[in-house]
Each structure stands twice: as structure tokens, then as C-alpha cells.
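Practice problem: ATP-binding cassette domain-containing protein
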Amino acid sequence: MFEIKNVSKKYNGEFALNNISFTMGKGLNFIVGASGSGKTTLLKILSGMEQDFDGEAYYCGKSIKELTSNEKSYYYNNMFGFVWQDFNLLEDVSVLDNVLLPQYLKNKQNRKKAETILIDLNIVDLAQQKVKYLSGGQKQRVAIARELMKNPQVIIADEPTSALDEKTSKTTMDILKAISKTRTVIVVTHDTNLIDNNSNVLNLDKGELIASPQEKIVTKTENLTFNESHRLSIKNAFALTKLNVKSKFGRFFVSTLALMVAGILCLTTISGAIGGSSQGEFDKLIDTYGEGLKDISVVGSFISAGGTSGNKEEKPKADVTQDIAGLYDKYAGDKRIDFTAFLQAFENIKVKVSGKEYTVKSTGGTPSINKLVAGKMPSGKDYEVVVPESFVETLGISNEQAIGKEVNFSSSMYNWNTGKPVLKDAFLTATIVGVADTTVYYESQGKMTSYKVSDSFFFNKAALDDMRKQAEIKSSNMNFLIRAKTPADMISIKDELNETGIVPLGRFELVEDIVRLNKQTTEQSGSASVLIGMLSVVMVIAIFLITGLMRKREFAIYKISGFHNAHLSLLNLTEMITGAITAILLMLVTSPLINLATQGLFKASILNSKMLLTGALLIALIAVVAYFTTMITFMKTNATTALKTGDR
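Answer key — C-alpha cells:
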């Protein structure tokens, strides 16, 4: 079966094998010699694990040197069996599952054959026992049983008895002798007591052959047939994944947890939770000062009161008059604002609804709005009005019920045509289109105080034009407010108005601090987001790289059982799919706790309904990174190195 011609192999300039030639057929064959004589090197060449050598080596006429990786894996799954001195079994897997390992590359696992082999080797009662709990002799029988499941033509045993006691060694050799009656059995050993007169012996000394078996007629088959199935189906890959998860649940849990944590960290970066601290601070101010904090008041005239910080010397006192005509129309459709509203003050207000008249107490100030609680702001050509929520409460109906009701509104308005205020009456009928919370918040002696403005009625331009005409007001300037969407929008609009010579009113100093904080936070959070994203990916790479390195022995066992890199890639894929799905489910289950954590850290809940899908996609992407990381480790795994087979 084997034909070796003038084979030499050097390590570091010294011969491990020096120009040896022999043939080897069926039966029990021993390779003996002292440590460093070249026994293990020859074994590696015969098995195809070592293909870089001088000379020629053939198995059934097939050049071992020219075997492809696919052909080698086929040989290891169907033709060559390996028995090692330290057994090389999957320790956390049962005896039966170890024996069935080569069968995952078949269309169907032959459990009956496995049980028969276990009966023949007298270990069937250990079938469900984990290998790590077995004695050395029992482990060696399991290793032999696994190789017999391949129905191999050749059994290669590397020091199979060196880790066993004398009695167990004899039992192991008896099994190998029995196997050699129908197969080629090659035993590498330094113990010559194992050899009997019927065995063929190759004696090596310092890389040279000093004794060899008698020449045998070796049948050469130029083209070996590959009849057996040799593929890992998706079904079997998931079955093997299930076995691995069950046997190494701790490893699986850590890997899954790493995927979930990395996914959440990446989600934190893209969701803007880290950069949301300034928005959180602004939300606190809104809770304190109300939605009116975002208001910009544009007025035709006002009396300056110096600075707004309490320093009366900050600005000189002066009356300010400014032309604001056309500004309302300019900002009415601006994308940066929530709404605009005219600030018309009224006196002597009486409102008739459904035939009943109500008197509204006048405050003498301009109307104020905290937020719209129902309906919309007034617009269009028909006469429309937004009324205070306190007025609706007086009507004894809900805010929604008030929408659409007609009101007869009569009041007095100040006419300043002569330079002095003169009250003029005005009247109209309008439709209620909105209800507003008119609460005003202000700070007094370090404490926040609030009150509701009962006379805050907001009319659309058409209605106000009619009432101002009735009051004989000639000025086209109508004071109005702009409700900005964000602090940045508020400051942007304020700056625009200043550039055109208009001085708006608002809590700009307070808001500008938030905008400045937001700019700084955005810059810092951008760097932090990149760093966190990189660290999360590095964490996953490190964990899966370490896990892969810890699995090198496991990968090597797969390889000597006939698995090549394509098989391991599919197994890796099914493991990652299982891990990613589990990580996503774990994220969904723990999302309330995760939200509590991110709320405490970043003042934001990242796992809302919109972000869950994004989180799942991120975990899937990170699993791809983990897949390629693990792939690197098993592709770089050398079976002989990982299994530590001898020195030379």
C-alpha cells in the first residue's frame, strides 16, 4: 500500500530522515527508534500531514506529496484512522458523540454501527458518559472506536500505549493486532516489548533506516475512487452546533453576550444617546420654564431696561422703535419653527358662546402661550381663534369639544395713533380652532413660580385686521412671537433678526448656554462614539480570537476526522447564526433593563421600537466580524502542531 522512495527531510539543517526507502502493506507494522530518530516525521509523511520533503511517497500509487487539502480530508474521513498517545478526544462530549464525529460528513449517521463498535470494544455502557470522566484505557478505546467508524484502510497509531499502564497497554495492542488482520496498522513506539515475531518492523536511528520489513508486493491503484459522501450538510452543521453549545455552554454564553454588548454599544453611538446630554439639559429647562422658553418675541417698540442679567449698567435705557412689517409672513413657513402667533393685547373682554356670555378678566399684558393642548394655531382667511384652557374649563366642556364652536368676541384695543393710548372697541365672530395652555413660568427670589394668563386669545391675521380696522389702528406693525423647534434654531433666527437691525425679545442668554454646550458635546460625543464603536468591535475580535485560539485543539481533532476548511466554515457560520439570534433575543428580553442603564448614563432610552431592528442588524454585522475572526484561527490551525505529535 505504501511505497517510500529516497525520502529525506531536514529541520534546521539537520536530517530528520535521510534517504530512506521501503514498502509497507497490510498487517501490523512498527516504526521504532530512540527519541529524535525520525519516527514522528515519517509518520507525518505517511499520513500526508507533512508534504514538504525530498523524494517520493505513494499510497496505492497516489503521490502523498501531491494530495490536495480536499483529498487529504477525504482520506482522513474514509481511509486513514489516527490513534494518539494523549487520545485527542472532545473532553466535554459523550463517548457516543465522539465516536460519531466523522459521521457528520456522511448523509446519515450510523448510530447502530457506532453501538456495535462500542460493544466490540467493551465500552458500550459508557456511551452517554462524558469523555473527561473516563480512565486512560477507556479513552484510548473511545479513540480507536472513533477511527473504526471511518472503516479505514489504514490505522496510524502514534505512541498509543505510552500514557497507559502495562495491563491497559496490552489490551490496546491486542485490539490493534485484531484490527491489523484486515487493515494496515502502523504503530510508532519506543517500547520494543510490544513487538512480536509476526510484526513488520522499521527501525530508525538518527533519520536513517537500519532495518526494514521484507519487500512486499504493493498493489498500485493510479486513480483512487472517492465513493463515500464527504460533505457537511446544513442540517448536520446545525446538529454539530447544538452539540457544541450543549457541551460548552459557558463559552457560547460569553460569545453571545459579547455580541449583544457590542451591538448595544454601537447602537448607543449611532442613536445619539451619548450626544444627547445637552438636549437633556434643555429638557430640564423646558420642565422648569415651559415651552415658552423657545419663544422669540418680535415687537414694533419697547422700552429697554438695560441688561437682563440684573446688571442695570449693562445697557443704557432707551425706547426702541423698529419696523417689523413683513417679518411675520417671512417666518410663518420657516422649517425651523413650530408656529407663529400674533401678540395682540385686549381689554374689557366679553365672550358669548352658545348664547351665554362670559366676562374674561384682563391682565393688561400681551397674550402668552406655553403649549397647544388641542387643535391647531389659527390661519387662513376665515376668522379663527385659539382660546385659553382656563376659558374652556369655564365653559364646562373638554378641550376637544371646544374645537369648532363659534364665539362672539368683543373687547377694547389700545389705539396709539396720537402717541397716547386710547381704548377703542372691536367685535367679531370667530371659530375656535385650538386650545392653549397659557401658563407663565418665572423665577422669583430663587424659586420658580407660575400662573395662568386668562386673557390670552390668539387670532389669525384676517380676524386681527378686522378688529384693528374697527379700532382705527393705522400701524401695519403687529407684534408676534416665533416658537422655534430647537435651541439652535432659536439662536439662528435671533441672529438673523439682529443682522437686519431687529432686536427680538427672549431668554437668549439662557438658551445660548445650551447651544454652546451642545456644540461642545457634539464634538466630544463624536470622538467618544467613534472610540466606543471601535472598542466594541475590538472587544468582539479579541474575545473570538481568544476563543478560536483556545479551540485550536478542537479544530485539529475535526481536521483529523476529515473536516476541511470549507466544512469548518459552514460549522462556524451555523454557530454564528445561532449566537447572533440568541444575542438578539437576549437583547429583546433585557431591553427594559438596558433602557434603565442608558437612561441613567446618557439620559436616553436607546431600545425603543424603532431602534430594536437597528440593534438586531448591528448584532448581525458584528457576528460577521466574529465569523471572519474565528475563520482565521481554524484556517491557521496546523493539526500536527495543535495535537503536539512527537518531536521528530
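Discussion: The chain has three domains: 2-229, 236-277+523-642, 289-518. Students who identified this feature from the C-alpha cells alone can consider the problem solved.
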